[in-house]
Every structure is written in structure tokens, then in C-alpha cells.
Amino acid sequence: MSPLNQKTSTLRKQALDIFEAGVIAANPYMAVKQCLHIEKGQLKLTLKLDDENFFRSKHWSKIHLIAFGKAACAMAKAALEIIPNNLLADDGIVVSNYNNISPISKVEVMGAGHPLPDESGLLAAKKCADIASHAKQNELVLVLISGGGSALIPYPVNTLSLEDKISTTNLLLACGATIHEINCIRKHLSQLKGGGLAKLSAPADLHAIILSDVLDNDLSVIASGPTVADNTTFNEAINIFNQYGLWDKVPDSVKEHLDQGQKKLTPETPKTTDPIFNNTTHVLIGSNSISLDASAKTATKLGYSTLVYNKQLCGEAKYVAEDWVKYAKSLCTKGFNTPIALLAGGETTVTLKGDGKGGRNQELSLAFAIAAEKYDLNGDWVFLSGGTDGQDGPTDAAGGLIDKNSLKRMIFANHDPERLLNNNDSYTALKSSNDLLMTGATGTNVADLQILLIHPKSDSNTHS
Predict the structure, then answer these.
(1) Quick check: pTM over 0.85?
(2) What pLDDT digit, counting tens, does each position of 83-116 carry?
(3) Which CATH superfamily hosts domain 28-155+190-232+269-286?
(4) What are the φ and ψ backbone dihedral angles of 430, each rounded to 5 degrees?
């Protein structure tokens, strides 16, 4: 195949620049720096309500640092540069996925499994629980939370094994369950999630600094809400399994625990009225919507008429791709004179039916390429779908970056794009066409960003 023409190469670079702007906007190090301050030897915490800032400060005798998530190392480094040594307890811990760990002085750093939990994560979770449970009144437990925390600190209730938790997580990931549904179940199988960490920390004070990886910034869902009240129930968890036809496949120990909870023989997760939350506060420092805004500003600076196609893109990836192509085709049919950027933020799902390799962003990209040919999307265009954490599913790619000739390159490499899509093998397809989005671990996580750049047909004819 011939190399990319200059126009396509330029569009691909611009899409990468727009994506990178979104990732930079979720920089966890800088965000933490902006919400922790020292005044007269005291740590001052920034709280936010809408767009107004409030502050919390106290003569805490000790500050216990617990950080977990894909951005944990960057967040912890920022906090440790601010917290005075005389206030910092010597039991701090930072837990992140293996690709994102880096050495940090003054605290223990541990790598753990993601998206599936592992024994290292269990050990780390037990250490987090131990720190929280030994914190005393007039001390502060400072918790730094980012996406991926649910898998990184697995601490099943005493009647469950880690293997029970892993097999249950596998079932949920494969069936296309939403992040809200998955976390509802996780919270009811865990000692830390669903407000569990806040419960262990009482009577000490607790403050959480949170980087959101969920679309509606629901704090009870981010990392399965270890520091906030949980209003889901055992009954809801059971209903989710039944909805997806999984109840008979769930380990017996999990079914027994959920049955015990439904019968009120096991305590529910802590709810909003629980007094343990009286001394608990939080601040949200980054989100998908903030990153989407940053991407949109960059697209506009590059000369695009910028539209947000969807602020909460969700649904089955291959169907989402087809709907988006139809919408883009309708714009092209109406005609436009200036280049258009259609942006989205969100988190699609994939129902596994094959045995291929890939992730939701790669599947969305491959499905978009197939749909673009099916509906004859004209003009010069490129489409990018990527995870802001740099990892899409169990692969080394962040997602996909395709153009109008991607399918031709796949076919030239002796691949059938449709067959690969049906086998959930988007990685193989995109690798063959040199369309994998490879960023490496970014150290942050605010879900996914999608970018479609289209130049009108007359413009593409001029520049081809």
C-alpha cells in the first residue's frame, strides 16, 4: 500500500493533538497541587460546591496518606510535596497498576493487577484497611482516588476468596454490564468499597481528593465509592445478575453472601444517614467533561467548527459507531464549507462473543471504519477513540486512530475486517493497518475521548 497522503497525515496529527489536550487537562499532579495548601503549619483542604470554593482546616496531629488508582503516583507526589514531614504519618501507601508505578519517598508504593484484581492488590488493600482502622480521633486520613481503584484494591468480605471475586468480575466484564452495575456488585462483595474505607477510618477525619473516570461524576461509583455513602442494595446486586442471565454462573459463595444480605442477615453498605460521614469531605479535581472541554478548545484553535456529538457516549461500541457515521453522513449530505470536529466523551461497552483481542475503543474504531464504507462517508476524515489512561482493555494500545483508507490497508494485509469485528479481534485489524493508538500509560484516567475530523469533499479534492 502507498503511504498516507499529506492531508490524511495532517488530520491524524491534529486528532492526536486534540486527544492529548484532553489528557493534559486531567493532569493529576497539577490538580492536587491546586487543592492542598499549608497555612501557619496547618493543612488547608479545598472543597468545591458548584463553582465556589470552600475550605477545611484543623490542627490534625497526624495525616495518613492512602492513594490508589491509575493516577495514584502522580497524586501522591503532589500531596507529599505539600504536607509537612512532622504531620505525615509513617504508614502511607500508594497503589497503582504495574504500568504506572514509580518510586516515591516517604511512602510504600505497590503495583497491583488491573482490570482483573490479583494477590498483590489484595495485600495492598489489607494495608489500606489497616492504616484506616488505626487512625485516631483528631488525625486525618487523606485519600487520593482515581480510576481503576476498584480492581487495584480488592478486599472481599471474609466468606469470599479473591478467586471468587475474580471469576465474578470476569462474568460482568464479558456480559456488557455498565460500570454502575459492576460497581453495585463490587460494593456488596467488599470490605473497602461502598463506604467501607470511611467506616474503617472513623473516628478519624477523612478527606478524599478524587479524579473521576465515570461520566456523571457519581462519587459512589468512582473506584466503587470507598469514602462515600452507597445507596445501592443487595437486592439490586442480585437483580443485575438475573438481568444478564448470570445468576447460575456465579460462584456459590457469592450467591450465598448476597442471599444473606437480601435477607438482612448481613449488614448493608453504609448509607447517607450514617454518622461515619459527619467528618468526611471530598473534592473532585478532574473529569471526562473537563477533558472534553479542553479537547474542544484545541480543535477550535486548529480551525475546526467544533461540535460535541455526545457528552456521555455509551452503549454497545459497534452500534454506537454506526449511529455516529450516520450522523456524520447527514452533515456531509447537507454540505458544509469549513472543516468540522465532532467530539465525544464517554465509555462504551463490548459484549464478548468471540475469542479475539481488543478493547472498547479499538472495537469502536474498527466498527466506525466498516460503517464509514457501508454508508460512503465522503470527504477527508479521521476518527480517534482512546482511553485517557493509555490502556484499552487487556492490550498495550490506548485505542484506535483510523482514516478513510484504513479498511483498504486491512484487506491488503489479508484480513477480513467484518470477520475480525465479529470475533472481537479489533487489535489484530488495527495493527495490520497501522491504526493502533499507542500512548503508553498516561498516569491519569478520566474515561475515553472520541474525535472525528471531517474536511468537506471539495476541500479534500483540492488537497489530495
Answers:
(1) no
(2) 999 999 999 999 999 989 999 999 999 999 988 8
(3) Glycerate kinase, MOFRL-like N-terminal domain (3.40.50.10180)
(4) -70, -30
